[in-house]
Specification:
Layout (H helix, E strand, L loop, with lengths): L8 H10 L4 E2 L4 H12 L18 H11 L14 E2 L1 H20 L3 E5 L3 H17 L3 E2 L6 E2 L4 E5 L2 E6 L2 E3 L5 H12 L7 E5 H9 L4 E5 L5 H8 L4 E4 L11 H10 L5
Parallel strand pairs: 3-4, 3-7, 3-9, 9-10, 10-11
Antiparallel strand pairs: 1-2, 5-6, 6-7, 7-8
Helix pairs in contact: 1-4, 2-3, 4-9, 6-7
Length: about 260
């Protein structure tokens, strides 16, 4: 069921900062810059299933987008120490995501949920899927028997995940989403009208031409670049693995309330 106890916008900002979902986050500056550099140098592990070509080969351009859309420090000479996610940008992202969820609900669209970070975001996606189903959306059931080189593509609580060695697996790869969309096409089933995801699941869906929205951390620039280019519709900046996954509950409640999906 949708999560109850919705916070006001100001209360949510305060909660995000206190739980370090935003504000002074755990990811250090040096890790952020390292990932921006690796993406710019063509390391596809950081491309999140997208095809970035030669458009983002300057890490300073990547930093500029991340400063604008995430709120990290925009000074290229700031190399070590604390970095930040602007909680106001997180809430603005949630507002944009809520508008797209409302559109899905109004149109009773087919929606696919997936996560490459099940330790943090699985229940955020599960609760959102439950709310959309209540609103009349079809939550896409993925084909059976799918796998990639990393493991098996499974679905738990309406959320597609990667399973490896009886464990839900953290992955940046777009291959699991590619496996799902390819199998749907092979079976003659319609593609989703919307993918709600993160990591490579969201990136590959956008690259494939499916409406894609999701979440990303300050050290994961690819989806923010894709949003700036229009390949991904919404990317919400947040720390995607804080101390307790329950810390995301007020954020999810706010999202569903803004989308008109609360009970």
């Amino acid at each position: 069921m949708p999560i109850s106890g919705t916070l006001s916008r100001a209360e949510l900002v305060d909660h995000l900062v206190k739980t370090r979902i935003a504000g002074d986050v755990a990811t250090p500056r040096e890790n952020n810059l390292s990932h921006y550099r690796k993406l710019a140098n063509g390391d596809r592990h950081y491309w999140f299933g997208l095809e970035l070509g030669s458009r983002w080969t300057d890490e300073q351009d990547v930093l500029a987008v991340m400063a604008e859309r995430v709120g990290v420090n925009d000074d290229p000479q700031y190399r070590y120490g604390q970095d930040t996610i602007d909680p106001e940008l997180t809430v603005e992202g949630l507002d944009r995501l809520a508008a797209r969820l409302r559109k899905a609900a109004d149109g009773q669209q087919r929606v696919l949920f997936a996560t490459g970070h099940p330790g943090g975001l699985l229940d955020v996606h599960r609760a959102t899927a439950a709310a959309l189903r209540t609103a009349g959306c079809e939550i896409v059931v993925i084909p059976e028997g799918l796998q990639t080189e990393e493991g098996y593509v499974m679905q738990f609580a309406d959320v597609a995940v990667l399973e490896h060695g009886a464990t839900l697996w953290h992955t940046h790869s777009g291959e699991p989403m590619k496996a799902i969309l390819t199998a749907l096409e092979r079976e003659g089933r319609p593609l989703p009208d919307l993918v709600v995801a993160d990591h490579g699941w969201a990136g590959y869906a956008g690259r494939h031409g499916v409406d894609s929205v999701g979440y990303a951390d300050s050290n994961d620039p690819a989806l923010f670049l894709a949003e700036s280019e229009g390949t991904v519709q919404v990317t919400v900046p947040l720390d995607d693995h804080v101390v307790s996954p329950r810390y995301y509950d007020p954020m999810t409640a706010y999202l569903l309330a803004e989308a008109g999906l609360s009970s």
